[in-house]
Specification:
The longest helix is centred in the last third of the chain and has 30 residues. 59% of the residues lie in helices and 12% in strands. With 243 residues, the protein is of the alpha/beta class. The termini are far apart. It has a single domain, classed as 3-Layer(aba) Sandwich (Rossmann fold), CATH 3.40.50.300. The strands form two sheets. Strands 3, 4, 5, 6, 7 and 8 form a six-stranded parallel beta sheet that branches. It has ten helices and eight strands. It comes from Panicum miliaceum (Proso millet). It catalyses: UMP + ATP = UDP + ADP. One of its GO terms (cellular component) is cytoplasm.
């Protein structure tokens, strides 16, 4: 449950349940494709840290130019800036369920998120895809992105291994990582998109089931007087039936 979260972008209402799922995988692993399917089936808002940065990079500002240059060189943008862009997008969406794609990319990202937003992710979906397959996808997607070239792609693979895998390990230790190879909750990125989504769908169905069960418990706990009347009337009715 999120507390009141405030910064210059605004705040979530106090006591409102906000659901966040991080989707982590190497560049070209298929994160965006799976997120689109999750949005369609489960009503989440898809927020891509990379897309938010690329949109900001198009702006004719000093900050936009800085982001554009760093992305072209395969460097990581300051964590506080990424988190504030994410938080602003979350507030503007009007939704309460979010897929955060390509984030956190390193421990600094994670710590900035914990400090600024402080909403514990329900889980972290890890899409594990071989470098060779990710490289092929990046070079074939023809999206006109500045970072879609072989040298930048390989540098991004190195950055992912050095910086993002420690984040994956952090959430694994906390029991938040969904890894199919171990507990039927990791996604094999080498499969087709539809095959992968069958595994993904099972994870989110489980999340919905847990949320519904939690909601039923919360409603019962929130109205103890109603529960007392039900028990009292039940006992009274039983006595009448036996007389």
């Amino acid at each position: 449950m999120a507390d009141v979260i405030k910064n210059e972008a605004g705040s979530f209402p106090p006591g409102k349940k906000i659901t966040v799922v991080f989707v982590i995988g190497g560049p070209g692993s298929g994160k965006g494709t799976q997120c689109s399917k999750i949005v369609k089936h489960f009503g989440f808002t898809h927020l891509s840290a990379g897309d938010l940065l690329r949109e900001e990079a198009k702006s004719d500002t000093e900050q936009g130019m800085m982001i554009k240059n760093m992305m072209h060189e395969g460097k990581l943008v300051p964590s506080e800036l990424i988190v504030k862009l994410l938080f602003k997008a979350m507030l503007q969406s009007g939704n309460d369920k979010f897929l955060v794609d390509g984030f956190p990319r390193n421990e600094e990202n994670r710590q900035a998120y914990d400090s600024i937003i402080s909403i514990e992710p329900e889980f972290v979906l890890f899409i594990d895809c071989p470098n060779e397959e990710m490289e092929r996808r990046i070079l074939n997607r023809n999206q006109g992105r500045d970072d879609d070239n072989i040298d930048t792609a390989r540098r991004r693979f190195e950055v992912f291994q050095e910086s993002t895998m420690p984040v994956v390990q952090y959430y694994e230790k906390r029991g938040k990582l969904r890894r199919l190879a171990v507990s039927h909750l990791q996604v094999d990125g080498a499969k087709s998109a539809d095959e992968v989504f069958e595994d993904v769908k099972a994870i989110f169905v489980q999340l919905n089931t847990q949320a519904n069960q939690g909601g039923n418990v919360s409603r019962a706990q929130s109205n103890p007087f109603k529960r007392f009347l039900e028990l009292f009337c039940g006992c009274f009715g039983t006595q009448e039936a036996t007389n």
